Amino acid sequence: MYTSAIVIDFGSSNSGAARIDTYKNGRLVYSTPQFCHSDGYYAKDATWFFIHPKLLERAEINYESLHDDDFRILSRVFMNTLEPNIIWGRDLISANCQKIKQENWVEFKYFKMMIYLDVSYPAKLKSYPISLIVKIFLRILKIECISVESAFKGRTISSSEIQWGVTIPSIWTEDNQRLMSDICQNVFGDHVRVLSEPEGPVVSERIHASNNAQLDHSPGKKSIVVDMGGGTTDICLLADKEVISESDSHFQLLASCDGIGVGGNMIDKDFWIYFLRFISKGITNGIIYDKLSDDELKNILLQPYIDDLDHAIEMENAWLAFKHKVVKSFTIPKDYRKWLINNGHSSVADRVTDILIGQTSFDAAELYEQAFAPTFNKISQCVESFLKTHNHLIKDDVENLSLIFAGGLSLNQKLRDLIMCKINAMFSINVSTNIANTPLRASGSIMDGASYLLLWRRFIQREAPFYIYDCAASNLMALQEAYKEKGVLMKYGELNAISQKDVEERKASNDKVCGFPVAIKGADLLDYRCSFCAVREEQKSIELSFYGSDEIIVHPQDNILAWELGSTLLPNYRNKSYVCIVDFNETNTGNLHYYVTLEESNELIKEGNISLTNKSKK
Predict the structure, then answer these.
(1) 136 and 59 in contact (C-beta within 8 Å)?
(2) What single DSSP character describes residue 222?
(3) All residues at 6 or more sequence positions from 220 whose CB lies less than 8 Å from its CB, including other chains
């Protein structure tokens, strides 16, 4: 039984997790998720960690030999780790610069898209397999999330009690997806689902825009998703589709665009070139700075300074505060001015002094054109090109078209306006758009919507190979209606081997049999849940039995057409009721997976597998 659902948003620049533990009728249901790595302003933290060389060496030699206890993590979740061997997140890295430098820790930063590029990660004159780095990072997130869950539940939670989901971009190839699926299964186990990133923002927007916190799903409606993150801009066209069964996706991906390399990180690069040109423009201090290429200028005036981790973080934090409008002006670290003087760039240092004392400042229009406009124009042009290429999928349904923004860059109104102008001009209408108007909403929309999809899709994964009848159901009509609500049409013709009278008589003659899973041969199998308790308080144990049949829907007790698949003994706690859940989502080929919990507390009492191949006739 799952105690919660957690979705990991593994991003190019920032990563985090969203958790849900809301129950209704004994099943996890969607509720506004809690963001495990939020600082209250932004839903995620930087995809950036340092690892102690000894732990990295062990991981290189034999990653599988590492236990979760070997990971001593210092992060937003684990703030008080005394002897860490992993430090992740911008603030914690900043606070531990000296330790990292003195002990020669190894840095891994912004590495997600290396999976897409299929390249290794270079660090400390070595090259590391990208699969190993992603495994380590996702395992860090898993360990943190389990700790968060354990704190909420007041007991130790295992990974198997959590339904995991990990989001990936729609632009990834089958090989990328296969590699990521293998990594996720290695880290989280078989009960992990790999989810498409573009669907998350659509679902999140629909839910938050509705009056009843439900998904507004309209077959035929189309959505353009523009996810503007740090490393990429992903553009997708999704269509609401008819949902026939609970295993279906709500959306069909009609088209996607490879926006790799067009994201917020490009603005960062362009800003630093603009900054360096600004502080060195027209200066000849033994060097004619204006004649240097961008790379040469950076290698002389910036790179040696930020090679020191303290300086790099200080400069980056100053820029991010300015970029995200936390402060009105870019605050140049004073140590940078001193470094310029000490390294023979005194005239450039004088220009920096003028900026610090307010005698000169960036020209707003020039700054926009040099640092922001190149990326904004590329993104808006990319959207325009995407729309032209796929116009045949959109032009006849523009009245049902909506535009969904996601990612940190979507908070910039100028960029949003550029994109909306392109779309409105092309279709001559005002396309409706979402308002992800807070950093928390913008950064968390993928996780938020994906958590809904995770819970929706987990119910059914395969078809039932046999019939079983739930003798706890009052009548066959009620059984038919219950399945009709789940999108399965149960015809009376399939029930001709057993009559309503037979059901009632058998149930009346054996009131100790409390219930069995319901399934229809050839149709989707629903997870099954039933409550029970011991017949007598003084019983020391309770026997729980599972039955199967090939041909008809049957009451299994004393029926020659059914067989016992297996049984298990449970300890009997006086006056306690139990819940048995047969989780067919986790059922592997040839096995049935079950959980037994205490009904009051959801405490896991027992779980296991029952072979479906055991045909010992009764």
Answers:
(1) yes
(2) E
(3) 239, 240, 397, 400
- Residue 495 pLDDT class (50, 70, 90 cuts): very low
Give dist(CA 15, CA 45) in Å, integer: 6
This model's pTM is above 0.85? no
Phi-psi region of 439 (alpha: psi -120 to 50; beta: other; left: phi over 0): alpha
Structure tokens at 62: 């034999």
Closest by Cα among 594, 595, 455 to 6: 455
The DSSP element (H or E) to which 151 belongs, if any, is: helix 130-153
Q: What is the 3-state secondary structure (H, E, C) of 155-190?
A: CCCCHHHEEEEEEECCCCCHHHHHHHHHHHHHHHCC
Give residue for tokens 């039933």. Answer: 530
3-state secondary structure 587-614: CCCCEEEEEEEECCCCCEEEEEEEECCC
Report residue 517: phi and psi, to 5°: -60, 150
- CA distances in angstroms from 27 to 1, 456, 529, listed in the order given: 9, 11, 9
Angle between helices 439-457 and 199-209 in degrees, nearest 10: 100
Domains assigned to the chain: 4-196 (3.30.420), 264-363 (no CATH), 476-617 (2.60.34)
Non-local CB neighbours of 384 within 8 Å, separated by 6+ positions: 422, 426
Alpha carbon distance 256, 198 (integer Å)? 9
Instruction: Measure the CA dihedral 77/80/83/85, to 10°.
Output: 20
pLDDT tens, residue by residue, 464-481 = 333 333 334 444 555 556
- Taking only the tens place, the pLDDT of each residue in 101-116 is 999 999 999 899 899 8
Question: What is the sign, positive or negative, of the torsion defined by CA atoms of 245, 22, 18, 131?
Answer: negative
Task: Measure the CA–CA gap between 102 and 124, rounded to whole angstroms.
Answer: 14
